[in-house]
From TrEMBL:
<protein>
    <submittedName>
        <fullName>Pimeloyl-ACP methyl ester carboxylesterase</fullName>
    </submittedName>
</protein>
<feature type="domain" description="AB hydrolase-1">
    <location>
        <begin position="34"/>
        <end position="253"/>
    </location>
</feature>
<dbReference type="Pfam" id="PF12697">
    <property type="entry name" value="Abhydrolase_6"/>
</dbReference>
<dbReference type="InterPro" id="IPR029058">
    <property type="entry name" value="AB_hydrolase_fold"/>
</dbReference>
<dbReference type="InterPro" id="IPR000073">
    <property type="entry name" value="AB_hydrolase_1"/>
</dbReference>
Amino acid sequence: MDRPIEFFRLDWCGRAVQLEYQWVGRADSQAPLVVFLHEGLGSVSMWKDFPARFCQAAHCRGLVYSRPGYGQSTPRHPDERWGVDFMHRQAFEVLPALLAALKIDPRQQQLWLFGHSDGASISLLYAARYPQALAGAIVLAPHIMVEDITIISIEQARDTYQTTDLPKKLSRYHQDVDSAFWGWNTIWLHPPFRAWSIEEELTTIQCPLLAVQGLDDEYGSLEQIRGLARRVPSTELLELPACGHSPHRDQPTTLITNASDFISRHTLGGEPR
């Protein structure tokens, strides 16, 4: 049974912020633990029931959280502008602080990351910085560099946000929808961000990776996951037809089947406990 939303306090960027998190799936402390990292406009609630469904199928525990600026976590300060290294800071500062606060020690348990879009890139950066920390990672539509198709779609998202009821729709998932939207949109469209790339950093990853992307992804080409596979030999690819940028929404059954099998094959003892 899923537990209620909880919060923990983090001193970050010179001020105190609260992060919301929720446990889902099995309560067994010996089961593999999957930490879910949301997309650039995501949050705990925006995952809906996918983490619980996945953890039930994969026989895992799950931890879902909202990064600063998203969901019910502390919104961005009105003057706060994220830097080009914003995903690195999430991977090297916020995620380790969350694990430490919840007494999650990767040396003592089988820790997996399950990231989508920006969350997938953050997962890859964590795996690269801490190569011994993870049992594995599942990354949906990761960004390893910036492509023209990505910028065009993010520009279109900006126009949609300014001319339609998109803010009202997103407000169901964020206490401060402008904080969530403009934090993401502004940095991705910041000209210096066009040169952002984590391609060289990926080479230190040692854990198994399942990289998933839809054939109709409007935010990136298949070069994102194929480039990842060239740099990390432990990568398996899953390319999904009839699927856009969000495989967990467009092809949930196929994704759950393949990702839970991937965890099973790479779990100590041969299958999740």
